[in-house]
Design a protein that fits this description.
Layout (H helix, E strand, L loop, with lengths): L4 E3 L9 H4 L6 E4 L2 E4 L12 H5 L5 E3 L17 H10 L13 H11 L12 E5 L2 H20 L9 H12 L10 E8 L5 H18 L3 E4 L1 H10 L3 H5 L5 E10 L20
Antiparallel strand pairs: 1-4, 2-3, 5-6, 6-8, 7-8
Helix pairs in contact: 4-7, 5-6
């Protein structure tokens, strides 16, 4: 299908930046302004670099207009603030019994979906448990499934620790899997895309950084991931994750019931210079 590419020639300065930055070599200069090269109409990667790079806001593509994009100007985020956010990020395992503001939740999801993906596939799907009561029902179903495995002595080798997780829940009421969090997000993606697992992890990393910048706690929940993906796989149907999707990873989030006063101190990075 031929791409929609328009140039406002009253604004275009003929700098050629959009042509030089077109990864798919779709564009060319003609008579001092850019156009789609003959025979390249179907080759567009839909990356929108041409729209983003034009200093004059003269380029529209795919029906998208520059005036509807957020401007990117100035030095950007203070590097020290970003450094503090990265160093001060904590895995939160204590949460307030309160749902996240729905407006904030939607904002986090919308922005996180801007995360880069391999080959610009943009197929990451966020499955979100948006209510504490829903997550409690999900917790009960997961732990019931794990309990059946324990009693049948059917836990796979290497997963024996889940027997203790079930015992703590059934005898002590301690939820090691979901930690009393009000929300859960699972990133999944069609298994056939170029980089399925990295796409999921990059999207969740973007979600986490913005969430913590807004005072929202997060936890990369490996135990819940293993439980729902590997041990009680029927949970993917409960969650509505498509059969052809790679179950990337699960993350808890919500308003934290704990405040950390400072970053921790790690030794220097492991670096191999070539």
């Amino acid at each position: 299908m031929e791409i929609q590419f328009e140039v406002d020639k009253t604004l275009c300065g003929g700098c050629g930046q959009c042509v030089a930055d077109c990864l798919a070599n779709v564009l060319e200069m003609a008579d001092g302004s850019p156009r789609v090269a003959h025979g390249q109409e179907d080759a567009c990667y839909q990356c929108q670099h041409c729209l983003a790079i034009c200093p004059e806001g003269a380029v529209s593509v795919l029906g998208l207009r520059p005036e509807d994009s957020e401007p990117v100007s100035g030095p950007g985020l203070d590097p020290l603030h970003l450094e503090t956010l990265i160093k001060g990020r904590r895995s939160v395992r204590r949460y307030r019994a309160q749902n996240l503001d729905p407006v904030l939740l939607n904002h986090l999801l919308e922005v996180a979906w801007y995360a880069p993906t391999g080959a610009n596939a943009r197929q990451v799907r966020f499955t979100v448990v948006d209510d504490r009561a829903k997550l409690e029902r999900l917790r009960d179903e997961v732990l019931d499934g794990l309990g059946r495995l324990v009693r049948a002595k059917a836990l796979p080798a290497g997963m024996e620790r889940f027997a203790e997780i079930v015992r703590r829940w059934e005898e002590d009421g301690v939820d090691v899997l979901f930690r009393g969090a009000p929300h859960l997000i699972v990133a999944s993606v069609p298994a056939g895309v170029a980089t399925p697992l990295p796409d999921c992890l990059i999207a969740l990393s973007s979600f986490e950084l913005l969430a913590q910048a807004h005072g929202v706690g997060t936890l990369w929940d490996g135990l819940a991931t293993y439980a729902m993906r590997d041990l009680v796989p029927e949970m993917r149907h409960t969650l509505g994750i498509p059969d052809d999707h790679l179950f990337g990873y699960a993350m808890l989030f919500g308003y934290p019931a704990v405040t950390y006063a400072r970053a921790v101190q790690h030794p220097g990075p492991l670096v191999h210079r070539v």
